[in-house]
Amino acid sequence: MRTWFITGTSSGFGRQMTELLLERGDRVAATLRNPVRLDDLAARHGDRLWRAELDVTDTAHMRKVVDSAFAELGRIDVVVSNAGYGLIGLAEELTDEQIQRQIDTNVIAPIQLARAVTPHLRAQGGGNLLQTSSMGGHIAFPAMSLYHTSKWGIEGFFEAYAVETEPFGIHTTLIEPGMVATDFYGAADITPSTLPAYAGTQAADFTHGKNSVPLEAMPGDPRKVAEAMIRIGDLKEPPRRQLLGSDAYSLVHDALTARLESAEAQREIAFSTDRDDFTPPSE
């Protein structure tokens, strides 16, 4: 029996993972804003479900919840940082409060969770940490600038954090799904564009629901995504990143290929700015 700590378990991947893990006999420390939403699972699985109320933007309380989970459950094998949401709106039209909440929830909270669990994972000799990111951590769509900011930001944090903590047996994986048939857009904070200057643009149309992908056309299966995340959490040597979905694979592959081609085209000017007495290692 393995023990998992998961944030954002009221719905989506977090709820799916919690159900699947309990069904196979594992223990889950599930955190969410309203723990009564897991009453049905508690009735079926008893003390293998540990619940705590948590708003991930409350850093002080999150540290207390993390400390309590490790103290009461002992070893926690896998931490899944899953809480987050989407923000849709043109950069110019979003409010300061919307921007702050997006960064607080999707960037600051995962960083603070990683910081809170690190001493515990190090003390027990390691563990796996899965961070829900997105194919949007590599690519970007108009009207989602702040959402992409949050995903690109958390990818940068884990790129460095992974190297810092691997000597302690802590392995991190950025989970990068594509479009999955969940209520992501239904739960998103959406600001329809009202500025006349943007009328008729692709970005403005998207904020009004035009040209959006209907749920039935999204390739990702939520249960299969949750199952894949569990498989990754079970690995002794998980990958640093894992794309999930054919769309995620294709779009990110194309974007990285184009970015590499662009970098190659910049070689001559890049090298021209070196000191005259410097010899590049590759030369």
TrEMBL record:
Swiss-Prot/TrEMBL keywords: Oxidoreductase
Gene3D superfamilies: NAD(P)-binding Rossmann-like Domain (3.40.50.720)
UniProt xrefs under PANTHER family: SHORT CHAIN DEHYDROGENASE, SHORT-CHAIN DEHYDROGENASE_REDUCTASE FAMILY PROTEIN
Family indicated by similarity: Belongs to the short-chain dehydrogenases/reductases (SDR) family.
InterPro entries associated with the record: NAD(P)-bd_dom_sf, SDR_fam, SDR_oxidoreductase
One Pfam family recorded for the sequence: adh_short
Protein name as annotated: SDR family oxidoreductase
Domain of life: Bacteria
Keyword Ligase among record annotations: no
